[in-house]
């Protein structure tokens, strides 16, 4: 047996819910410098809990930014590959990549339009420093031209994601009147509930809420959800749930050297209107004209084994690589996302420990709303 | 705390070894190891009649989270494998020291088992590893 877990090696950060995790028997691991629960006993049970009922995740380590100022819409239309002009309904969420000039992905994020001078953005914890440095640098240069954009990190907020077919019902039962304004919330929208901020975006392929609360209220919110029968779910199940739902993971399925067009995220790039000059546009235009060399596909392993990131994929059209792979608890088989030559057909081989195993190329998502979507 | 049965011997790579009445040995992975790895989903067992030297990679256990090699604790020949694990890998999580056994070997040198850690030494070893 080799050591499978990375030990916590530097002074780690803890969310306001750390003690709650220990009380729930969490196995704690280092995640991007945070001491986070990977599971509370069984990752598989937690996965099924979310697919069939309701579970809650501490996602307080994620980074919440408020962007304000009169010029914020114009600023974001330049900063992001997707176009915030498409989302001018209060509370509407937009998923976008943050690109460098080469069209590579610095991060993926969700941005909520609140009003003409306020957007809220949620970015990944692991990329916090470089994202902030990049966005701040862009803001400084925009402000020199009179943009008047301010960026504020909301590290005063904790965030709990409640996910699963019964998540919203249980959240309302647990959290009472404070959550009432969210009852009418449509998918991919957010709303303020007093001091709270509630979104319905999700990262598991199930319905639910992401609830941002002042850090000092995180413990009581968690306890109320626990009392209503919402089980704590670790980062391990979060990863298998998002993979089944066919959602990209930054750092695995895309990075600064991969464009959204090669990472299955072409749908998040707004090329129209033509006159919108966003960072990375020229590089993506060229790639689009030439046709991207690679595309992201789903794989289901037909032989026995487990697909993992970085395994080599062999196709009749050339080689590719698995970007995310795991055992799928919902399908009972191993699944993966893989970057393969753009012309790849419907079958391939994956090299696992020196053996070539047969895999089928499928459309993802693999599972959503409690059910398998592929055979 | 992980369970560390007294009557077994242990390796630093977290295999356990039990000497049977007929001189053969049974091998599996420890409670501590299964706990670290989490839910098992795939087990690759050695071939019957394969010969290994102590420390050779001879099997693989895969949890949802990660794949991990299993090493031969002694030198010898594989004489039996626990085929049930192929269908129900989770047995290793539920019962690592008994029905979750992985394979049996005929040792080349019976003395080799005695050189492995006893329960007390292994318990100390995993306690140190965690700090």
Strand order of the largest sheet of chain A: 10-11-12-9-3-13
Distance between the termini of chain B: 14 Å
Query: How many strand units of chain B?
Result: 9
The number of distinct β-strands of chain A equals 21
Quote the beta fraction of chain A. Answer: 25-35%
The H/E string of chain A reads HEEHEEHEEEHEEHEEEHEHHEEEEEEEE
* Main β-sheet description of chain B: 6 strands, antiparallel
Shape of chain B: globular
- Which oligomeric state applies? heterodimer
Structural class by SSE content of chain A: alpha+beta
Q: What is the averaged pLDDT score of chain B?
A: 96
State the strand order across the main sheet of chain B: 1-2-3-9-8-5
Largest interface, with Cβ-Cβ < 8 Å?
Answer: A-B, 22 and 26 residues
Provide the helix percentage of chain A.
Answer: 10-25%
Tell me what you see in this structure.
Chain A is of the alpha+beta class. Chain A is built from eight helices and 21 strands. Chain A has helices at residues 18-23, 43-52, 72-79, 128-144, 167-175, 218-227, 235-244, 281-290; strands at residues 27-31, 34-39, 55-58, 63-68, 93-99, 105-115, 118-123, 150-153, 157-163, 190-193, 196-199, 208-214, 231-232, 294-301, 312-315, 318-328, 333-341, 347-352, 355-362, 367-368, 371-372. In chain A, the strands form five sheets. Chain A has a six-stranded mixed sheet with strand order 10-11-12-9-3-13. In chain A, strands 14-17-16-15-18-19 form a six-stranded antiparallel barrel. Chain A has a five-stranded antiparallel sheet with strand order 5-6-7-4-8, covered by helices on one side. In chain A, helix 2 crosses helix 7 and helix 5 (167-175) packs across helix 6 (218-227). The longest helix of chain A is centred in the middle third of the chain and has 17 residues, at 128-144. The radius of gyration of chain A is 21 Å and the shape is globular. The model of chain A is unreliable at 1-9 (pLDDT under 50). The longest helix of chain B has 11 residues, at 119-129. Chain B is of the alpha+beta class and 131 residues long. The two termini of chain B are 14 Å apart. In chain B, the strands form two sheets. A six-stranded antiparallel sheet of chain B has the order 1-2-3-9-8-5. Chain B has a three-stranded antiparallel sheet with strand order 4-6-7. In chain B, strand 1 (9-10) and strand 2 form a beta hairpin. Classes of the chains: A alpha+beta (375), B alpha+beta (131). The interface between A and B is medium-sized, with 22 and 26 residues.
């Amino acid at each position: 047996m080799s050591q499978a877990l990375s030990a916590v090696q530097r002074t780690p950060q803890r969310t306001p819910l750390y003690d709650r995790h220990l009380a729930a028997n969490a196995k704690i691991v280092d995640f991007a410098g945070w001491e986070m629960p990977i599971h509370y006993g069984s990752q598989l049970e937690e996965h099924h809990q979310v697919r069939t009922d309701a579970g809650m995740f501490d996602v307080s380590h994620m980074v919440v930014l408020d962007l304000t100022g009169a010029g914020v819409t114009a600023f974001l239309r330049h900063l992001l590959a997707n176009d915030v002009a498409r989302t001018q309904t209060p509370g509407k969420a937009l998923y976008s990549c943050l690109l460098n000039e080469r069209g590579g992905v610095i991060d993926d994020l969700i941005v909520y339009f609140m009003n003409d001078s306020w957007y809220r953005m949620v970015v990944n914890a692991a990329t916090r420093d470089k994202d902030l440095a990049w966005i701040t640098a862009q803001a400084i240069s925009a402000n020199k031209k009179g943009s008047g954009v301010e960026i504020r990190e909301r590290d005063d907020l904790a965030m709990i994601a409640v996910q699963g077919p019964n998540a919203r019902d249980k959240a309302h039962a647990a959290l009472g009147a404070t959550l009432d304004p969210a009852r009418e919330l449509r998918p991919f929208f957010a709303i303020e509930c007093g001091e709270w901020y509630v979104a319905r975006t999700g990262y598991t392929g199930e319905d639910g809420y992401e609830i941002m609360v002042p850090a000092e209220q995180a413990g009581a919110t968690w306890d109320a959800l626990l009392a209503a029968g919402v089980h704590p779910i670790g980062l391990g199940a979060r990863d298998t749930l998002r993979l089944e739902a066919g959602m990209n993971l930054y750092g695995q399925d895309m990075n600064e050297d991969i464009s959204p067009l090669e990472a299955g995220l072409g749908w998040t790039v707004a090329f129209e209107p033509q006159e919108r000059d966003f960072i990375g546009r020229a590089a993506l235009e060229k790639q689009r004209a030439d046709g991207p060399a690679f595309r992201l596909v789903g794989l289901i392993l037909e032989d026995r084994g487990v697909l993992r990131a970085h395994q080599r994929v062999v196709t009749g059209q050339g080689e590719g690589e698995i970007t995310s792979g795991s055992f799928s608890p919902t399908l009972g088989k191993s699944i993966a996302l893989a970057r393969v030559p753009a012309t790849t057909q419907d079958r391939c081989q994956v090299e696992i420990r020196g053996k070539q195993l047969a895999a089928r190329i499928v459309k993802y998502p693999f599972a959503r709303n409690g059910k398998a979507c592929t055979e | 705390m992980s369970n560390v049965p007294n009557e077994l011997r242990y390796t630093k790579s977290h295999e356990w070894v039990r000497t049977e009445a007929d001189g053969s040995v049974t091998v599996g992975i420890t409670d501590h190891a299964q706990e670290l790895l989490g839910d098992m989903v795939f087990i690759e067992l050695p071939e019957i009649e394969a010969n290994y030297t102590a420390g050779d990679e001879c099997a693989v256990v895969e949890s949802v989270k990660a794949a991990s090699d299993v090493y031969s604790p002694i030198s010898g020949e594989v004489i039996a494998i626990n085929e049930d694990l192929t269908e129900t890998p989770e047995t290793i999580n539920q019962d690592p020291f008994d029905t979750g056994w992985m394979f049996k070997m005929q040792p080349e040198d019976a003395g080799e088992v005695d050189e492995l850690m006893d329960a007390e030494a292994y318990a100390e070893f995993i306690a140190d590893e965690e700090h």
